[in-house]
Amino acid sequence: MPEGGLARAGVVICAPHGREYVRAHYALRLLAEKLADDGLCALRIDYDGTGDSAGGEEDPDRVASWQASVSEALEFVRRCGVRSVGLIGMRLGATLAAFAAADTDDLGALVLWDPVLSGRAYVTEQRAMSALSFDAPSGLSDGSVETPGVVLGPATARDLRCLDVGTLTGALARRVLVLCRPERDSGVLPGALGQDHVRREVAVGQSELVDVPAPWHALPRETIERIGAWTSEVFTEAPKPVRAPPAAGPTIVSRHAGVDVVETPVFVGPARLFGIATSSPGTNHGPGAIFLSVANTHRIGPNRLWVELARRWAAGGVRSLRFDLSGVGDSPVRTSEQRPFVPWAPQAFDDVMDSARALSPDDPSNVVLVGHSASGYQVFDSGLQLHPRGVISLNPVVSFRPPEVAAGEGRDPRRRSVIDDADMVAAYQARADADPRPSRLREMAWRTRMLAMPRRRSSSWMRDLVRHGVDTLIVCGDRDARPLQLGTSVRGLRRLTRTGRFRFEYLDQLEHGLMISTQRTWIVSLTTEHFLRTFASGAAYQHTELNLQLPWRESA
Amino acid sequence: MTTQTGDIVEDILGIVATHGQLSIDAGALGHDDNLFHAGMTSHASVAVMLALEAHFDIEFPEEMLRRSTFESVSSIRVAVGGLLSDP
User: Fold this and answer.
1) Which long-range contacts (CB under 8 A, 24 or more apart) does A216-220 make?
2) pLDDT in tens, A248-304
């Protein structure tokens, strides 16, 4: 909302879908802030069954529900008191925005940002992207389509294939801006988009935003500025008072095993980090789970895994908090010196402490930290600081150059498990990727390096975690396991495992981003079984459906 | 659609040069050279696949959507040739 409670219009921002949604999230936050600065109300939404919204991808009528989500968002913005409204959509969100525009009489502005013009081409492209990126057979034979991070059910795939922006007629909006990628711009826009009131420009930086994996994707600031400026120009109405919507309270978002699962948006700690608290009426008094946002993406976890786990575990009596570390997602930076959108930021240590105090005020250590990739690292070092009941780390990345070191400052003294000789690590891993056969020379060089920093060896800090009573579960694919395995030995891992507080699950084919649906399903089952068996009551454990069978693992 | 083998290879080379985003000169590419080692990303391989489908009016079935299908001009020629002869 604009400061001062006066707005000239309201705009709904429609996000992409799947992996593109995760990568675009922070860019769309910046766009919303830009619009608000320019005197416009901006509303970002997660479509039904996506992001933090209720429901899931396997629910019926996905495409119709997403379209309904956009219409409801437009109505919501109107109820805030604005007279004029507009729509901005990126990728599949642009498609949904265009269809919503065709059903809306008085839309002031429509921005289609790198739009998906053909749903059929989109499904084909996403299916190929998944198959060629991960080189894993989908194993789906019911008409479902595996895409990076999301499985489209048969009906969803069918309905998406029917979306064709070229079939739309009418003006769509008073003014329309279409931003195309140069490499995808055929020069001719289809159907209604060929009219005179439609302006076409270049989507600068789009490939660097949605085609590049986090955390290396880059924010298209020039395009964000351009869309903000264009949209602001369209709405020339005088500002009028608008009412901020009331803060959302507890909402039932799903039912698991017959139990209502309730979620509440919350602000965490003095820095007011944004998060979602999940619980159920039968919540027990065991440790709560804290899901850390991953690298510079937002709180839903890898392909919404944190949402899935939070709701599933809530049905088993576990309360949880998933939240955005400072400077990413929807959280602010902690200080004016902190740079936003930075993975592995040292401020994460304070963020985690604040989240533990928020979820478990009487005993902040009565929590289990859950992380993946960059936050898979963070749970180790925050675990050594907080001594929580447990840590669960999926594909942790412990080899990186800390941002404070890259900025010319000393390494944060709270860091212990990081191996920050980034050039050496990158060279080692790149060579290993090109030639996966073990090389004794490479391994010896690595082990020699590890000898020079005994406290940073994984054997040392893993032992300290266990010694402090931290139940530790690490799940790793081959690439992410290497730095951990080279800092210890098989005997060392066995010794830790015998304590009953340490579990190392090595799965050589596990893809780093957890983009493959069968692997994600397995991770859900494995972590759920581990958490509920270790920390929850036996009754809750027995009530949770588990399926630890995984065909790809047996054939590996 | 009748296409000579030589024409297919030339067409494939042209598509790879346009969409493959190779880090080397496509003209210096051997037919058996690994395109992924030559800098073709997953995104670029999808662009190559879509361009092949549009150019030859074919559709790659699920079982052919593997990196091995698109790893060299030769492997692409085998795949495209098979689809053209048995659509």
Assistant:
1) A217/A23, A219/A26, A219/A27, A219/A30, A219/A341, A220/A27
2) 789 999 988 788 999 999 999 999 999 999 999 876 668 999 999 999 999 999 999
Residues A419, A483 contacting (CB under 8 angstroms): yes
Q: Is B60 on the interface with A (CB under 8 A)?
A: yes
Helix ranges, A435-516 (H)? 440-451, 458-467, 478-485, 490-498
**Interface check B31 vs A, CB under 8 A:** no
How far is residue A430 CA from its own chain's centroid? 26
Touching check for B50 and chain A: CB below 8 Å?
A: yes
Angle CA(A161)–CA(A53)–CA(A116) in degrees, nearest 5?
Answer: 25
The residue assigned the tokens 């030995």 is A489
pTM of the model: 0.92
C-beta neighbour count of A342 within 10 angstroms: 22
Task: Count CB-CB contacts under 10 A for residue A243.
Answer: 11
| Separation in Å, CA of B42 to nearest CA in chain A | 5
User: Of all residues in chain A, what percent carry a pLDDT higher than 70?
Assistant: 90
| Pairing relationship of beta strands A259-268 and A251-256 according to DSSP bridges | antiparallel
In chain B, the residue whose alpha carbon lies closest to the alpha carbon of A136 is: B66
Which of the residues B36, B41, B62 would you substitute to probe the A interface, choosing the one with the greatest number of A C-beta atoms within 10 Å? B62
CA distances (Å), B15 to each of A292, B6, B24, B37, in order? 43, 14, 15, 17
Count how many pairs of residues, chain A against chain B, have C-beta atoms within 8 Å.
Answer: 36
Query: What DSSP assignment string belongs to A129-165?
Result: HHHHHH-------SS-EEETTEEEPHHHHHHHHT-BG
- How far apart, in Å, are the Cα atoms of B31 and each of B18, B35, B82? 16, 9, 17
Half-sphere exposure of A477 (CA within 13 A, CB side): 19
Q: pLDDT, tens digit, for every residue of B23-37?
A: 888 888 889 999 999
Is pLDDT at A425 greater than 70 in this prediction?
no
Residue among B50, B53, B65 minimizing CB distance to A131: B65
* Residue type present at position A524: V
Half-sphere exposure of A227 (CA within 13 A, CB side): 34
Distance to chain B for A139, nearest Cα, Å:
10
Rounded Cα gap, residues A84 and A235, in angstroms: 8
> By the 8 A CB rule, do A115 and A158 touch?
no
Cβ–Cβ of A133/B66 closer than 8 Å?
A: no
B51 close contact with A: CB closer than 8 A: no
| Contact: B50, A125; criterion CB under 8 Å | yes
A167 has pLDDT over 50 = yes
Q: Which residue has the tokens 């600068």?
A: A204
Residues A174-177: contacts with CB within 8 Å, 24+ apart? A174/A107, A174/A108, A174/A109, A174/A234, A175/A108, A175/A109, A175/A110, A175/A199, A175/A234, A176/A109, A176/A110, A176/A111, A176/A112, A177/A109, A177/A110, A177/A111, A177/A112, A177/A201, A177/A227, A177/A230, A177/A231
> Does B43 lie at the interface with A, CB-CB under 8 angstroms?
yes
When CB atoms are compared, the residue of A121, A132, A434 closest to B67 is A132
CB contact under 8 A, A135 and B49: no
